[in-house]
Amino acid sequence: MGDKIEIDIYDNIQSKPFRKQPSKPHNGPITKIDVSPNGKYLVTYSQFDSSIFGWKVEDISEGKLEPDNKTIKINLNIFSGKIEQICVSDDKKLAYIRDKRLGIIDMKNNETESNLQSNARYCTFNLKGELIVYGILQNRATIWIYSARTKNGKWVCKRTYEIRKDSKFIGTSRDGKLYFTSNNFIYECNILADKSIRMFCNYENNENNVKLMNKISSNERFTCLKTKNKITIHSIVLDIPIASLDINNDDQIYNFMKQAGLSNLLLPLLGKGAIQNCIMRNCWKRCLDQLKQDNKLPDEYQTEDLPNLPYNIQTTGEYAYGILDGYVWKIKLEEKIPKMDFTSENSDEIIENWYFEIKKMHETHYKTYEYLTTHLLNPYYMSIRYEDISAEKFKGKNMELSHNLIKWKIEVGHKNCENINLRVYKKINVSSDKWNLICNKKGIEKCNICYKPKLLNDNHIILLTTTGIYIYYFNEVIKSISLSYFYYMNLDKYSDDVEKLQDNYKKVLSNQILPLPNYDSFKLNDRASYIIDNKESLLIYGTELLSFAIKEHKLELIDKIYKKCLSHFEKDLGNNRMFLSIISCMMPLLNKYYPEYISKYSIETNLIIDSPFYNIKHQNDNLHLYSFQVINLTQSSKFKMLCYNYGKTYYILNTIQQSITQLTSFFNKISTRTTNSTIPTIIFMVPYIKFINYPQIYKWSSELIKPQPSPFIETINKNIYKTWNGEALINFKWNTYGIYYYMIIWIMFLALLGCFTAVATIPQLYNNEDIRKQLLITSIILGFIHLSFEIRQIIYNPIEWIYDFWNLFDIIAYLLPICTSIIWLQTNDRNDHVIQLLSFSCLFLDIKFLLFFRAFESFGVYFAIIISVGRQIIAFLLVLFIIIISFAHAFYILLLPKSDVSFDKRIIDDDPNNPWNIVPTYNQVFENGSIDSNPFIIQPPNENTNMFIDFKTALFAMYKFLTGDSSALSNWSYSKDPSLAILIVLFSLLIVVYLMNLFIGLLNNAIDKDNDRVSYLIQKAKILAEIELFYLLPNQRRWKTWFPEVIHYYADVDKTREMVKEMISKGEWNTKEFPKLKEDLLDKLNIQPVDEVSLRNLLEEIQKMQSKL
Prior knowledge:
The protein is of the alpha+beta class and 1109 residues long. Among the domains are: 1-163; 724-855, no CATH class; 898-945, no CATH class. It is 42% helix and 21% strand. It has 32 helices and 40 strands. A hairpin with a 4-residue loop joins β9 (101-106) and β10. The longest helix has 39 residues, at 857-895.
């Protein structure tokens, strides 16, 4: 591994007070500073003497830090390079990189380990104390994860990841998430959860503005990433970038930090600039004042002049750490930044300048900040707790609430205290006592305020009433009060019951964020235009608003939401794809009430991509309509992990593996050159965002009985599967998990089929009592297993289960073998009754075996035709059946014997319908040629002699006549019974000739209509839905790798060109939506753009000419 780095450790004298130390910890200026992930320990490095010093952070809340008892000096004789990076964990493990070599020092027990990696480029500790190292190994970018617990004093590599060649590592966050760039997109990878998400599209992505170790700051709601001179803020909840800040625009950052409340996230990314200097000067002054007040400020700083601002400042969100006179100072930032001013030190000027700056802002820019603050960023707004609300019962009196220069006045009507008005006043300046009325609003009618209102900040007030939660927002620029949030709660009946009111409000306000407005919230407050006009509000509330519009049949509102979602996506294809989820998630309701929107959406979003341009790649394999998700930017390698941990033992095996890999690659290249089979492919996106996702909140018990469906489960619409998008969606599901579970189900059925068929068919088995019992018991167990899934389907949706024709075969195929096996075990006799049951059981089992082939396209198309055609002609078959019954009834009346007959005793009469009179008779012929009039031999009649004795057999006789067998009517003389002849002629002409030929024609038309892949894909979608709901576990239905939010697929360029040309020829190529994107697609496919107006006129002329012919 190379030479070892020599490390000298010196004990510092700590017996004397720190302020009396004769020398500074380092013998030169401090070069680097690093804080542990949870802020428990801090280290400094001085390049002057190659010393590393530890500092106690937790012992002091603010002020000058005390040094730890160890100083580490790294010998400079071996390596000439300087230390490039240092990082430290919470348990005092220090890692550093010098000359691309990684070294680790345990500052608690002086253990050292050097040269763990010889090509390390970056290292950091995560919150769990694990060491994350990025480096280059054998020309492949690799990430190593070392365990926080060492083994025999050595660090153990837990996991290794090879980064894909089209991806580039750019940094990590403090919680251990990795960030990559790939094809102009920034990705976040959580290796612990094995989950990756695409954050945003970086349109200016190149080698110069996305570099390794870019600053990243994140919390549970937002991720802020600095690339070059820009800070992008990505909302984890909405999955879109909500703001992009220019690092050189101090005014923009100033206003955003003031309003948005994200100072703790943005401050670590700002670097040295005017904003950070202003903040640090304020915090530094207040820090010294607080220390002086608490008598903790060292004597050398007890002066009137402000000491110099610390340099080399590093912020962690809550604290800032800086260097002053060779020592580290800890400065508290929490709760101070939102209250301070960046331009003045006077408190009056702070408030006045703030409002002055707001007025100077452009109104449209201010609205952007207003929306972000109101709906997304404001920490108070997003996490209001019940404990924060005053428990004091509101007594129906007018009251005033003031903050800084703003005062809110709540006026309650005198009649039953049901009318509430809001007024906002403002002072000219702090010293003035005069309040000027800015605006007022007639607020809520017919409700009572339950608890004392509360100001969330200058601009927001919350009211808890009997009709729900109201949050009003005061807009300083346009001087208006608007309702920014309303959640309906019907609490009128509890207006006098304090405990009930408290319980209801606690349930709502106990969550981390306020709940989304419910159906009644939109119904009682017309805020649709306010939500639609704002991008972030639409993404938050759009799904509920669209649901409300559909249920209330507001077509204009539905159309506005639909167009706005497509418009937002079109404006920023790379970052705004989540707006399509508003439409996708409402597919079940649209399918129920307005299915034309599904057809419209399917056509308009066909062949699109969530990128500003299309990309054509040459693939060695035929990947047409092969679906995938961009999720695994790293590939785990357990074999290489063993090599790193056990070095020499696995070195030879690693060399062998590399040799095999190189040989395989060599032969693949030769094979590719000889076959010359590179296929150009283009990538498209399935526009059904979040269409296959299940609700994240669930209970195991209820999910096993009646699982919650996804929009995919509830939406069966042909228009979804008419395009490649639907087929690619089905392919992804089938290839990811569907085929594996389907084969398992099939194998289990084959076990049932094999056991039961063997015992029913092979004499050697059913004659052996022991083997017979074992096979029958196994058949019963397997049958009940399959039957249990059918019962779950019946419980889930009994009507839909009955409507599916194949379910009848399933239930019979499972019930008959179970019942037959139980009866055979009980009787222990293979009698006629058991034999009949065995025959029907094997019949349905064999048919069920055949039905498994319907999941495969070669067979499934025919099964789909059978069902779809059967549904179309079922009415015709009903009419035909009624006509057959009518003729059977007529023949029954005509040919019914006049009296009761017996088949055991001959009855002699003149009834032509008597079975004894129509049976064949044999007379004796004498030698002279005469025939004896008395029958010599008479064939006894039976039930089939005259099938019209019973109406059931008469009906069966008509069925035989329909199939061409007229033997049931051949025993009568047609010349003697003209009525019989007339009925036969009528039946043959009407039924056999006319209706049956008509039936064949209808079948041909129905087959031509449904002889496509759409019916097959719908059938396959139902199979996948059944697997998801009843065979996957509840947690499996929430796996992002199986049920991603976004799916992409490859398409053959040649087939895509044919598809587009076909769409153009049919007039289906619509360029009204996404014109630039479709223009780029035509350019990539080398197709000349078409004039849609001329093409449409030409098609209309052709249709008119065809109609005249």
